[in-house]
Amino acid sequence: MKNQYKQISKFLSLVLRHKPEVIGLNLDENGWADVKELQEKCAKQNQDFTLEELDEIVETNDKKRFIYNEDKTKIRANQGHSIDIDLTLKPQQPPEFLYHGTAENNVKSILEKGIEKRSRQHVHLSSDKDTAAKVGMRHGKPVLLTIMTGKMYENGITFYLSENKVWLTDFIDPEYIMIQ
User: Fold this and answer.
1) Please, what's the b/e burial string for 97-133 (b: 16 or more CB within 10 A of its CB; e: otherwise)?
2) What CATH class has 3-77?
3) N or C: which end of the chain has fewer CB atoms below 10 A?
4) What's its top-level EC category (predicted)?
């Protein structure tokens, strides 16, 4: 994604995932916002963008955070919400192992208490180590955790796969966590 769009993308993450009230945006029960309303309300906050620029942000965001509906009249974040919405995700069988990146200073707590969703709707997991490591780098010296998701699934734990291929679950007990 072009550097000029990073600020807009971050602002869109804020209003579509966490605080739509910052601009008075209405999200439906599934997190969808009207594109024209979003564009108008963002402009009032000096976050102007054209529809072509929004297309570029949606298409080139490295984490594929946003998605349009079929006719591009609505937009939403794929996951990562701290507000209560229903993403209409269907349970999926995960691969045998998935990965979670965290900062070194979180490891002791994780090994004691597990991985909690905290203010988010789900715990996020990656199918590739590089992505998980990048997530861990955002918070300090990264540590890559391998999660025994196949075993979790066998034990009745539910998993979902978001539109942008992030694996989601509610909680990861320490018994399913291995340090790389």
Assistant:
1) bbbbbbeeeebeebeeeebeeeebbbbbbbbeeebbb
2) mainly alpha
3) C
4) transferase
Token pair in block for residue 75: 């937009």
Calpha distance 51→1 (Å, rounded): 16
CB 135, CB 101: distance < 8 Å: yes
Q: Where are the alpha helices (DSSP H) in the chain?
A: 3-13, 35-43, 51-60, 107-113, 129-137, 149-154
| pLDDT tens, residue by residue, 58-100 | 999 878 899 999 999 999 998 888 898 888 889 999 999 999 9
CA–CA separation, 169 and 116 (whole Å): 10
Does the structural domain 98-179 have CATH classification 3.40.630.30? no
